[in-house]
Write a structure and sequence with these properties.
The structure is a homodimer.
Chain A (H helix, E strand, L loop, with lengths): L9 H5 L2 E5 L2 E6 L4 E2 L2 E2 L1 H15 L4 E9 L6 E12 L4 E10 L5 E12 L49 E5 L16 E8 L7 H7 L6 H4 L8 E8 L8 E6 L7 E9 L5 E10 L5
Antiparallel strand pairs in A: 1-2, 2-6, 3-4, 5-8, 5-11, 6-7, 7-8, 9-10, 10-12, 11-14, 12-13, 13-14
Helix pairs in contact in A: 2-3
């Protein structure tokens, strides 16, 4: 098996886009990144981010927002990009993810608005006051490969969990009680995150990472789908190699919506990405 | 003087838009909402929000993102809106704020992507775990009308502060030390917020509110302009009448950028809006 590297991995293969004309890309939404039969939103955002990185003169997403309009399906797709503005250090663009109905009508799945820059060209001052999450060491966290062999102890997410095979997730036990019917009620989710094939993180894979953990709703005793309406991610630093720590918090579940605030920390204790999504709660809490 | 109400106030007059055709609105950017000679970003977002509320079949912004492309100037402007998707409970649209150079070229100032709904139709469950900010009572906070009569004690923002006359801001003294050369270094800003003419808040004015306080950069000992690159606001509830409490935190100043996380609380202790902006720091910290 060939050495997995950034550019040569499952994630890169499954988020690849092919430019057919200026601003027009072919893509294929892989069934390998579904959860509860929905194509993972972070996987879609990363694919759109790849197209925008090709369309814009700057390589890295600095701030990227996606509005999830209709449910994507595994299969062919088209991405259309538009350049909004190009500047010396930053550029802005939009992207639309389109699929086609049986009778050939276009349906837009996702609309993205993003500003790109060059993370490698940023000054290296760091005055971050935020602290990495308090998460137990990797070997003390729960994954599909080391959960205790007790009934129900393996974090079980109902429905298809194809994406689970693409990821190396180790959940903080304090945020995995829901898997044995004992949610903490705090609305938190923390995990070590890696890609199953060992690919190191990069700015595009961070767009997947911010939406790759189980929903905080599970930790609040809610079950079922909590679809993302909108997600905005800030990519602040190219991540160092190695596993990431992801911490998600929900503090405002109200009116049938909740927010998920996510921080992603790398092995150098840098806060490499922050995101917030607005999601709908489709059941009475 | 006529009774100031929602719909009949400085804010409504100065954010008014006139539809000229489907998806085309005339607007006038008022010089009354400038700070350090820049037109306030929240004021612009509110104006765009008004246009989108007219263009879309749902009245209230639920989640709205703006990318600030070039500096707006007081004077005429055009807003172009596009409907992205209309649904039963939510609709999505984009808006572009355009101004014209002396030789008639179009320059885009701001691109917005937003999803709208009906805040009045949301279920009234509240499981918010966030708590209102610890801010002293209104009468113990510092505003331009009650600052102690000592040299330098009045919060002084260099440059034009036209917007200060539109707002009734009372800063938490713990976050106003910068005004007397003693910033706390914590990157926090808290204030009571109202409109100077007494207009009660509503979902559109919340879009102004999330960007209406002095920058947290002042509290970190930085001076000068900290321009917003992108701002995303979630409006979660129609606010109750009366003054709002606004709390802003910066935890990730690095690489020439910082984030400002804002919460807006109403008189009923509801977390009515949350926002995060990415801003550039244009000096060596």
């Amino acid at each position: 098996m060939s050495q997995v590297t950034i550019g040569n991995s499952e994630f890169d293969r499954d988020t690849a886009v092919t430019r057919r004309a200026t601003g027009v890309y072919e893509a294929h939404l892989s069934a390998g990144w579904t959860i509860i039969q929905a194509v993972n939103g972070g996987y879609l955002l990363a694919m759109m981010g790849r197209a925008l990185g090709d369309a814009l003169p700057h390589p890295d997403p600095l701030t990227i927002t996606g509005h999830y309009l209709t449910a994507s399906e595994p299969g062919p797709a088209v991405i259309r990009t538009e350049i909004v503005r190009t500047g010396r250090t930053m550029s802005t663009g939009t992207a639309s993810l389109i699929q086609f109905t049986h009778d050939g009508r276009e349906v837009e799945r996702l609309r993205v608005l993003a500003t790109y820059g060059d993370l490698g060209a940023l000054p290296d001052d760091v005055r971050t006051t935020a602290k990495p999450p308090a998460i137990p060491p990797y070997e003390h966290c729960l994954g599909t490969d080391n959960a205790p062999d007790t009934p129900g102890a393996r974090p079980a997410i109902p429905g298809s969990t194809e994406i689970a095979d693409r990821l190396a997730l180790r959940l903080d036990p304090a945020t995995a009680g829901w898997a044995i019917g004992a949610p903490s009620g705090k609305g938190e989710m923390r995990a070590w995150f890696g890609l199953a094939d060992g690919r190191d993180p990069d700015p595009l894979s961070l767009l997947l990472t911010v939406d790759a953990l189980p929903p905080t709703a599970f930790d609040m005793g809610l079950s079922g789908w909590v679809p993302t309406v909108e997600l905005t991610a800030h990519v602040r630093q190219r991540p160092a190699p190695g596993p990431l720590r992801v911490a998600i918090t929900t503090r405002n579940l109200a009116g049938g919506f909740l927010e998920e605030d996510t921080e992603v920390w790398d092995t150098e204790d840098r806060l490499v990405a922050q995101s917030r999504q607005l999601a709908r709660v489709l059941q009475t809490p």
